[in-house]
Amino acid sequence: MLEIHNLHVNFGARTVLDNVHLHLKQPGMCALLGPNGAGKTTLLRSIMGLIPYRGVVRAPSQRAYVPQMSQFQWSYPMTCLDVVKTGAIRGMWRRSKAADQAQEALELVQMGHLHDRSIAALSGGQRQRLLLARALVDQPELLLLDEPFNGVDVPSQLLIQEVISGLEDTLVVISTHDIPSALATAQTMVLLNKQVVAQGSVQLLQDPALWEKGFGLSAQSSMVRAYVRQVEEAA
Ligand SMILES: Nc1ncnc2c1ncn2[C@@H]1O[C@H](COP(=O)(O)OP(=O)(O)OP(=O)(O)O)[C@@H](O)[C@H]1O
């Protein structure tokens, strides 16, 4: 479903992604983990074709990207329904169809009653759910989420986890620093630090040496021990 070979991204003289290889063959949840500046957002934006890269990216044409909440322009004078309709590319040829699809997507994230609410008036959790609805309106085969749990309260986090876990035919790639949410949603873990440091099941994260390699954290540190304990409890 998603195949990446020899992917390189440079910003000026700086190499941000260096020979990334990744192959995700079937629908399911994949968590993309890595320290600040590891290139997670850059990888997602490369897959969407939003930035220039060298290498090969094979991804379904029906794909959607949810940017970090802070990257969206919340001061636009738009309603929730307007924003979600902008995701209904396939329904654009019939306006009424786009509106119906958008309303359904809003209901999926429990925001159907807020369809005519100005987006400037939404809370953080509602904003993240709105961006998810906009991405889901066209039923993508590949859904890329950039830090969807950031700045979101626990009920909204759980709702987002529930909605994406219900997408049976979709490959969902979630960039996150939120280890408990990653453990709760994803079956596949990818550790990125300019390159794919490791890829595997949740149990992968039980190896303290990987935290050292992937995050630059000492395997002996209390933080790594706490992470490993969380993974063991979830496994
Ligand atoms: N448009 C750009 N121009 C120049 N440098 C950039 C650009 N976008 C990203 N970078 C740099 O590329 C590196 C990787 O950034 P990226 O946002 O992909 O990392 P990340 O893993 O998503 O980080 P975080 O977890 O902090 O969000 C960073 O050092 C960042 O400063």
From TrEMBL:
User: Pfam families of this UniProt entry?
Assistant: ABC_tran
Provide the top EC class: hydrolase
State the UniProt keywords alphabetically: ATP-binding, Hydrolase, Nucleotide-binding, Transport
One MF term in GO for this entry?
ATP hydrolysis activity
Keyword set includes ATP-binding? yes
Asked if the Swiss-Prot or TrEMBL record annotates the protein with the keyword Hydrolase, the reply is yes
E.C. number, please? Answer: 3.6.3.-
Family matches, as PROSITE patterns? ABC_TRANSPORTER_1, ABC_TRANSPORTER_2
Q: Which Gene3D superfamilies match?
A: P-loop containing nucleotide triphosphate hydrolases (3.40.50.300)
- Which parts of the sequence belong to the ABC transporter domain? 2-218
Q: What is this protein called?
A: Zinc import ATP-binding protein ZnuC
Q: Which organism is it from?
A: Corynebacterium pseudopelargi
